[in-house]
Structure formats: structure tokens, C-alpha cells
């Protein structure tokens, strides 16, 4: 017998770290020690904040690099898909590696805008009445918000230190391997969360 | 009332708000500012306080009282923080400020509350009255990114006695803050008469009442008659646009009877445009919400060409009405407009003109940017998000140990 699925949702209030940097070098150095939830904010929460807009970049590091004319670096950072990471420290290492490998002190130019490192206070809530079976799961999933979708697809993986999202993990436990696999393959980094919710609903309701 | 927001944010978001509110239910929360009427702070509190009560939070709202001398000083302080003038603060002014704060401490009972929100610099000194176990939060609604240092030092004397503070943007957080510092942007209320849906017919009728042709493109800036809103720059940009596009410009705002500078700006604008039949300089009473709503809805493009801006929520108001906004690349304007997606960020009169022309030439851009603008506001700048941020913040401050934010 599998455990019931508890729907949760996540919210954030941004917090100032009091740290702003005025050069690419300082940006890289700060990234090495800044609170990991600052990386969480700039790489993950920004996906949420801009998911419904076709922005140039969906993380604020890339956008800052782009605005300051580090165009190639902006692109190299933008391709880092944070959904492929479940450990913020691993993600930090990858970002620094890219930045350091491509850093050239001759690149340092006039910074047009400083970068403000922000962190977050997170709050996770639980919905009432967990789902005990697929039918209930579908019903409750449809009534859940995009904050809930984001929590289960993205940040629950960081909490549980796994590459499998919450929905897929639970679906596997009730023998729905195909649905679990299809959901785990969705491109959360690039898609609108409302569209993702529709896609998941389709996958869940598919009778195959 | 809270359920009336379901059409804008969805039933699931409102249900989540109730779940979040369980964590702070029955808390006694007091908001203190300097006025019940006029200005964005009073406007937002008049909505947030009843919404908090509906979530079973015992929320109250009180205002400090002061004489002319007190408010002259706080106005000066506001200007020094916002605009960094180099006028010294006199010790006599500080003594009078503290005297009035002391009088208010006796009039405003803060002891019966768990959490006290103090809005803006005027009542900041009330924190002297903080009791053990209470949490005091200072909510700053102005741009303090480059303040006059003496004015900031005056504030700093009080800020670090609070348990947390809140600014609109990280850029506004100045030096010396040692308490948790949250970033909570302001918001607009979709149920406010300024923002409620108007029919096309109502919109057209209001425009026509002012002699504006609803069938011809309309470019609008809504703002006080203030040089910092650069109405003269907007007219220059419009004249560049007008060479190719038969269009109309509306500069609509108001000035208070005690604002001689506003009246001067208004008169200068009238003189400058006396022979321009397609430029409308409209000074309306401050409660002309329906008219402002209609001007925004009847616009083809909305402009916000401010030189300095606290946050500039008028940008979100226009975006909520599916209008592309051409705005200055400054302050809160650049936080609201996503360049090239919901409008354009510009740095000059020429840039403003070029982007307006680009929009007038491409109806599809107008439509797409308008839709994205509304989505941006729905997700980031509506009052429900603002209320939710406050609930989380209150809960966090009550449950987390206070720690320094700066390294």
C-alpha cells in the first residue's frame, strides 16, 4: 500500500543580502560563498516569476550578464538547466566553473548596472485531504495552483535530494510508471507552468 | 470581499491564502502611517486591513497626528531621502519631531498588538515604544537608493530598533541596516475604481467628454504635474511621433491646492501647448478614478517618462488594462516593464519617440505586449500577492530568530 499524496505549495518572500557587486570578478567571487538560497532565488524562483513571459533569459544571472554586454557568458549560463540539479551546492560549482573557464580579465568593462544578490524566506503549506488513489490525485491536482505544481516538480527534488519529481515518485509507487516517466521528462525550465499543468492533466487522464 | 478576487487570481490562490492565514490567525496587527486619505500608502492600507480581518487577523490602522511644523519637517525628510538635496537638518527640527512622536506615543496604543507595521519615515520614531515580545516592522515606500546622508543617518537611528524592514526593491536598500530586510513590491487593486473593467462605450464616452477622438491613436501619461515626471520630455517625444502619426497626447494628473510647483508646471504646459489641438493637458480632481481608468483603457500606448520614481504603479495599472508601456529605464519602472515583452524601457526623448512609433506601426505588438503586460501584473503586482507576502513575512518574523542580513 503506497502512502497518500499530500499536495503542498511553496511561496517566497525575497530578502536583501545587502550585497551588490560592480564587476564580473566580484560577481564570480561572491557566487562562491553567497547563501545557497540566493542561488535558489536567482536560478529557480525566477523561472517561476517569468514562466509566463517569453523573456530573453529565465535566470537573473544570465540577464545581468547580458545587460552588461557579457553576451556569450549570458548564453553559457542560460543553458544550465537547474532542473537537472537537486543540490544547490552542485549547481553553484557548475556555475562557477563556467564563469571561471570563460573569464578573461580583458572582458571586464564598464558595468552598466550592479548585481544585487537576493535570497528568500520560503514558506510551504499543505493542502487538506491527501490523495489515496489516482482518481483522487487527478481531482486534487486539477484544483492545485501553479505554486503547488512548482513545488512538486522543482523544489521538492531539492528537499528530497532526487532527480525524480514528487508526482512521478508517487505515481511510480502506485504502479503508474509510464505516467511518472512522461511527467519527469517535461521541460519545466522552458515551459509556461499553466501549460505544464495542462500537459500533466493530459498525461494523468490518458487511459493507455 | 476576498472571494471577489477569484476571477483575477483563481480560486486555488485564494484557498492557499486561507491556509497561509491559519499560521497567523488571531494575531493582533497594527498599521500606522500619516494619513487615512490620499497617496498610495493610504490606498493600499484601506484594502489590506479589511482583507486581513477577513482572514481572521485582528488588524487595525491608525495615523499619527502632527502640526504643520512636524509635517514640514517630514516632507523635507522625504525629499532629502528621495532626491538627495543638500539642505541640512536642524537640531531644532529633530527636537520638534521627537516631541510630536512622544505625544503620539500617548495617543496611539501600540501595547495591545503583536506586530506593528510602521509605514514610511513620518511615524518611524514610534518604535521607541516597542515592548518585549512585540515585532515591529518598518515599511519604506520611497526610493532611498541615494539619500542625503544626514537624512539617512536620522532614519538609521530608528531602523535598527525594528525587527525587520521592507523596501520595494533591492536598489532602495541603503547602508547600515542590520535587521532582516525584505523586498516586497507594491501592488494594484483590480477592484479599485481606477482598475475595474469599463465597457468600450463608457470609455469612449469619457474620452469624448474631454474632446478626445476615441478613433484616433491616443498616447497617455498619467502623473502629477511634476518636473520629475518629465511632462515636457513627453511632449517633445510626441512631437517627433506626430510627424508621421496622426495621434493625440493626453497628459493627465492633478495638483494639490498647496502645491505651487504643480500649478506652475501645469500652467507652463498649458502655455506650451496652447496651439496644439491634439495635446490635452488635463488637471482633474484626485478622485477622478473612473476618468483615469478610461484614459488608460482608451490609450493606444501609455508612457511613463519619469526622471525619478518611487515605484510608479501607474505602469502596472496600464499593463493591467493590456496596454504596452514605454517607460524610463529607472527605479520601479524597470521592475515592472519587461523590455521588449510588455513594453519598452527607454533612456531619452528620442528613444521614447522611436518606441511609440514602433508600436503605432505594429498593431500586433500592441496586442501581444498588452496581453503579456496583464499576465505580468496578474502574477507579480496584484494586491493578493502583496497580502500573501505580508502573511509570510509576519509568520517568519514571529518564528525565526532575528539575524543580520549583511555579511
Written account of the structure:
The complex is a heterodimer of chains A (208) and B (407). Chain A has helices at residues 24-31, 36-50, 60-67, 71-78, 88-101, 134-142, 146-160, 166-173, 177-184, 193-205, and strands spanning 8-21, 115-126. With 208 residues, chain A is an alpha+beta fold. Chain A has 2 domains: 12-120, no CATH class; 125-205, no CATH class. In chain A, strands 1-2 form a two-stranded antiparallel ribbon. In chain A, α3 runs antiparallel to α4, α6 (134-142) runs antiparallel to α10 and α8 (166-173) runs antiparallel to α9. Chain B has 2 domains: 2-187 and 382-399, 3-Layer(aba) Sandwich (Rossmann fold), CATH 3.40.50; 200-380, 3-Layer(aba) Sandwich (Rossmann fold). Chain B is 44% helix and 14% strand. Chain B is built from 15 helices and 12 strands. In chain B, α2 packs parallel to α15, α4 (68-83) packs across α5 (91-107) and α7 crosses α10. The two termini of chain B are 43 Å apart.
Primary descriptors:
heterodimer, A: 208 residues, alpha+beta, 10 helices, 2 strands, 51% helix, B: 407 residues, alpha/beta, Rossmann fold, 2 domains, 6-stranded parallel β-sheet, 44% helix, globular
Mean pLDDT of chain A: 93
CATH-derived topology of the largest domain in chain B? Rossmann fold
Mean pLDDT of chain B: 93
- Number of separate helices of chain B: 15
Supply the CATH class of the largest domain in chain B.
Answer: Alpha Beta
Q: How many domains of chain B, as an integer?
A: 2
The secondary-structure class of chain B comes to alpha/beta
Residue windows where pLDDT falls under 50 for at least 5 positions of chain A: none
The CATH superfamily of the largest domain in chain B appears as: Glycogen Phosphorylase B
Number of domains of chain A: 2
Inertia-based shape of chain B: globular
What share of residues of chain A is helical? 40-55%
Structural class of chain A: alpha+beta
Alpha carbon gyration radius of chain A: 19 Å
N-to-C SSE series of chain A? EHHHHHEHHHHH
Which pair of protein chains has the largest interface, and what are the residue counts?
A-B, 31 and 37 residues
Reading the helices and strands of chain B in chain order gives HHEHEHHEEHEEHEHEHEHEHEHEHHH
Q: Largest sheet of chain B, described in full? A: 6 strands, parallel
N→C terminal distance of chain B:
43 Å
